[in-house]
């Protein structure tokens, strides 16, 4: 059984010599500090009889040695490691380390953020690979897709999002038309406001704003739901009974976001065009029939195909990012909020980056 800390004394030439024994640790100190405080002059503290010492014991030895200007001898490797720096501390020693220069702190923060982003990107790619493997295994083993779960997510991702996406897109169409008309009026070309609204809504803004809205609305919900399931050990319970979390949780959500994104993007583009048409009718006096005929002339089918090609990619990206962040929840409820925020930020960032890459690609192949 571990022995408590104790000491023996011996008279010396310049004061008492103390020989500490036992375990000088927080759990075994007992009343040792009070007994040491009642001693008179101390000339030497011998540590050779100690079985163990921790930081609290090192602090006690250091305090006693300073109070009596005593010599410390017989320290082992552990004691030397703990006491070496403490016994050299004087009144001028700084409690806090010197702050690094601002430019070094900035570089350190940028480097840390870059590494974190890179690891996050690699994690999302790896998670997408796991998703593909699970989907292939499900198809090869002829297991049925969980259509009930997919249809439920259709309602969450698609149907329930129609009002907010429609209103947002309508107002964006009004803003584009109004701002475009202000600039084009200087040259007497208000009619070209229709070109601006039509092509911007179909080719870029309708789908892009929808993807951002879905990332903030559904991607965050995916992360929060799966993160909560991780904390309540529902995911572990699924694995225990032989149900793959990828098949039961991830695939339905990613499938729902992938399938509904083209529909939502087309719906948002139409709402934006309607909003621009209302402004052109009220603000510019352009009749709705003229507005529609002009749109038919200036919107090429390539713009529609570009939107329909980008939409599923954005849907996969949002679904995978949200599910990945939810699966990374490990310790406590605070991580659910952190991972939910990360899911939204990562999805929006990646959507914008991919949209820019798509724009460059389609321009390079002549789909202007």
Structurally, the number of domains stands at 2
- Strand percentage lies at 5-15%
The helix-and-strand class reads alpha/beta
Helix segment count? Answer: 12
**Radius of gyration over alpha carbons?**
35 Å
Assembly state here?
Answer: single chain
Q: Strand arrangement, largest sheet?
A: 1-2-3-4
Distance between the termini: 83 Å
* Mean pLDDT value: 86
Poorly predicted segments: 89-96
How is this fold's topology laid out?
Elements: E1 6-11, E2 16-24, H1 32-37, E3 42-53, H2 55-68, E4 71-73, H3 77-86, H4 102-140, H5 147-157, H6 162-184, H7 193-231, H8 234-240, H9 245-283, H10 288-298, H11 301-327, H12 333-364
Parallel strand pairs: 2-3, 3-4
Antiparallel strand pairs: 1-2
Helix pairs in contact: 2-3, 4-9, 5-9, 6-7, 6-9, 7-9, 7-10, 7-11, 7-12, 9-11, 11-12
Write a structural description.
The chain has helices at residues 32-37, 55-68, 77-86, 102-140, 147-157, 162-184, 193-231, 234-240, 245-283, 288-298, 301-327, 333-364; strands at 6-11, 16-24, 42-53, 71-73. The chain is an alpha/beta fold and 368 residues long. The chain folds into 2 domains: 6-86, 2-Layer Sandwich (Transcription Regulator spoIIAA); 117-364, no CATH class. It has a 4-stranded mixed beta sheet, with helices on one face. The chain is elongated. It starts with 5 loop residues before the first strand and ends with a helix.
